[in-house]
């Protein structure tokens, strides 16, 4: 007979909150994807910023979807996750979309920095001229790296199953699950590499933009007219600083998740999960209000 769900009141509350966050984030990212796809059909072309936002919206939508399925099974039907290859596929796909989300976000920060900052360095000028041609290759490279991470994550998740495929009794199941948790430490370090790489890209983008803004402000002190370049700098700085703050909290959550990985059901673990599910939707909402086209479309449809 099929297994009956065994969920406590705490588990039901957790599932309800995570479900609300997930579907809100999915709606926000689906809105970005739909608006940009409609614009793509009408104009037959997308600029570099819209290409990055489109891929980012798709990655986050898929990440929230697969993550919600994984969390739902872990709370309602936890034993199903230890059936080969459900766990391996869930971990692999989740890792792929998670790292795709991180690195495409880093590409967006780098794009803002190169497009808006003003430096006389030859390499910087060269990148500013060729950035529109470079963006598709950056996005392709991000997806290839995310795919490699997903394959490695599948291999890491598959090892404990190979070692414990005979542990079918109830007495051995708890031991097998503890061993599987220990095998997930390499995947956390793998995720840490993705977070660290994208985090450094965001930090460098913020520093370069801040320095460029400071230089531009010094030049404009004698001019009372409002500078469009100054407005662009400030708007980009607001976006990147929001990236930086949320990436910092996200990185802290990853470290805490490594500490509390074996403490299932704890309140700290739940708070970590709550933020991790809120990050893709909240950050995409900031991107919507930072993009005139998306913001105008949202204001038109909300009434």
Describe this entry's structure for a reader:
The chain is mainly alpha-helical. It has one domain (4-160, 181-300): Rhopdopsin 7-helix transmembrane proteins. 83% of the residues lie in helices and 0% in strands. InterPro entries: TAS2R. It is found in: Membrane. One of its GO terms (cellular component) is membrane.
Q: What key phrases describe this protein's structure?
A:
Rhopdopsin 7-helix transmembrane proteins, mainly alpha, 83% helix, 303 residues
Query: What is the second-level CATH architecture?
Result: Up-down Bundle
* Overall number of structural domains: 1
Structural class: mainly alpha
Q: What are the low-pLDDT stretches, counting only 5+ consecutive residues below 50?
A: 165-180
How many E strands?
Answer: 0
Q: Helix coverage percent of residues? A: over 70%
Rg computed from alpha carbons, rounded to a whole number of angstroms: 22 Å
What is the CATH topology classification name? Answer: Rhopdopsin 7-helix transmembrane proteins
Major sheet characteristics: none
Strand content: under 5%
> What name goes with the CATH superfamily?
Rhodopsin 7-helix transmembrane proteins
Just give the CATH class. Mainly Alpha
Total of DSSP H or I helical runs spanning 4+ residues = 9
Average pLDDT rating = 77
Helix and strand string, N-terminal first? HHHHHHHHH
> How far apart, in Å, are the first and last alpha carbons?
49 Å
Shape: globular
């Amino acid at each position: 007979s099929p297994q009956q769900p065994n969920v406590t009141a705490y588990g039901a509350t957790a599932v309800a909150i995570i479900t609300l966050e997930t579907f809100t984030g999915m709606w926000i990212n689906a809105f970005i994807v739909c608006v940009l796809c409609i614009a793509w059909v009408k104009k037959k072309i997308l600029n570099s910023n819209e290409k990055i936002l489109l891929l980012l919206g798709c990655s986050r939508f898929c990440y929230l979807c697969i993550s919600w399925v994984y969390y739902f099974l872990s709370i309602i039907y936890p034993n199903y996750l230890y059936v080969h290859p459900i766990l391996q596929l869930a971990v692999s796909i989740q890792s792929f979309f998670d790292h795709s989300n991180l690195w495409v976000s880093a590409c967006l920060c780098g794009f803002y920095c190169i497009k808006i900052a003003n430096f006389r360095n030859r390499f910087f000028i060269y990148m500013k001229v060729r950035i529109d041609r470079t963006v598709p290759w950056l996005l392709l490279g991000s997806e290839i790296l995310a795919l490699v991470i997903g394959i490695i994550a599948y291999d890491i998740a598959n090892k404990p199953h190979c070692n414990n495929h005979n542990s079918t009794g109830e007495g051995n199941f708890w031991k097998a699950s503890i061993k599987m948790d220990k095998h997930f430490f390499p995947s956390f370090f793998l995720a840490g590499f993705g977070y660290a790489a994208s985090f450094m890209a965001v930090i460098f983008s913020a520093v370069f933009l801040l320095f460029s803004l400071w230089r531009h402000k010094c030049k404009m002190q004698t001019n009372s007219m409002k500078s469009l370049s100054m407005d662009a700098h400030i708007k980009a700085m607001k976006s990147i600083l929001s990236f930086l703050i949320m990436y910092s909290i996200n990185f802290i959550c990853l470290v805490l998740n490594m500490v509390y990985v074996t403490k299932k059901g704890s309140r700290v673990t739940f708070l970590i999960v709550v933020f991790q599910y809120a990050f893709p939707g909240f950050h995409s909402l900031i991107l919507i209000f930072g993009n005139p086209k998306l913001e105008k479309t949202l204001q038109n449809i909300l009434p």
